[in-house]
Amino acid sequence: MTGISLNPDRFFSPDPTTRSLARRLYEPVARLPIVSPHGHVDPRLFADPQATFGSPADLFIIPDHYVTRMLYSQGIPLEQLGISPLNGKAETDHRKIWRLFCTNFHLLRGTPSGIWLQHALSEVFGINEKPCADNAENLYDHLAERLARPEYSPRKLFERFNIAVLCTTDAATSTLEHHRAIRASGWQGQIRPTFRPDGVTNLEAPGWQADILRLSEISGVEVVDYASFIQALEMRREFFKHMGAVATDHASLTPFTAELTPGAVEQIFQHALKGQATPNDAARFTAHMLMELARMSVEDGLVMQLHPGSLRNHNAGIFQQFGPDKGADIPIQTEYTRNLLPLLNKYGNDSRLTLILFTLDEATYARELAALAGHYPALKIGPPWWFHDSLNGMQRYFDQVMETAGLYNTAGFNDDTRAFCSIPARHDVWRRASANWVAGLVARHIVDLDEAQEMMQELAVGLARRAYRLA
Questions:
Q1: Is there a domain that residue 224 lies in?
Q2: Co-location of 320 and 299 in the same domain
Q3: Are residues 378 and 432 in the same domain?
Q4: What is the dihedral of CA 204, 298, 170, 172, to 10 degrees?
């Protein structure tokens, strides 16, 4: 059994000069408030003052597909990790799930998940032993006892983590009832929704027709054609803004954009309403809707985020047995320069639009994204995303993006997580990686120390606040 050791110089360069500079740059930003402008934490955690995280398995294992996908890759069935099949039963004994997790904790060595989990166990819950089979029961008891305390409620940890703002991700058809409950409670934690319309803009989304009916109900606009569809979306965006939203979020297989003629888009929409849309229809409609959504952002000021390049639900067997989003989403090669050309020709020079681009294809950083963001006023580059939200991914990002795009054409950091207790750890890794990169610039006499300290303030908080208009 080995202990958790959070070395104060972790993630810094082994070179003593760079390490010393990194330490000096990191310390002033280490405890700055956390700005989390994009993520997937469930707002219901904060709607009820009495809400808890549940069991240790509820908190650390069952909802975290970073963890479950690694264990599944080693042959551990998802049912044994508490993941419920669509037709069947999952393990319900959370102690048993926790023991299985602890027994296999070594599989996470050297991974971002391993780093985040050790940080949370040590810094949040006061555990200084690495999980293993021998200590699984004691760790479970320790965590369960802590999670039952009022000071470990979601609201209290939000305050303890010094989170200035946390943005959730919410379907266009959401009533935002949990956000309304948070407001009504008088609690001062700043939880903002984010408008995500993929369920109604992607014609191939499961349940698209049902979601269109729901969109009609919740907007008060009967969606019978493309014009009424656009009207309903605009009304929902207005409601989200009223509830504090500052951004929208869009996923697509590719960043392909195109403007269809009114007749062509109406024909596709009518085919979809009848259940007759083809894959080609869906691709063309998504391309057109990205143009429309950019137009809406120009008009209403919501920041537009685009997350392309993930082939969702790659494992057909898992998708059929468990449904979507079970860790089987795989990156694909992605091209931005030509695909975004129609959108950028129309809106890229308009400073009223902020379009934040993400990628899972790191080859595009230097080849395309840095050059695009270094030219178009509307563009910003989002932080390393998903598979690249790691120490090495951040270093590659700094090396490939910053020289061409410039620091101020990037969007700072967002944690993009549903694992709430990992948020401080993720931001700490970013701040340490940032300090290490900026220290290298100082050591090579590219920037001076005063400039470096200003850059660190920006990387930690300032860039995200401005990109998402949270200042």
A1: yes
A2: yes
A3: yes
A4: -50
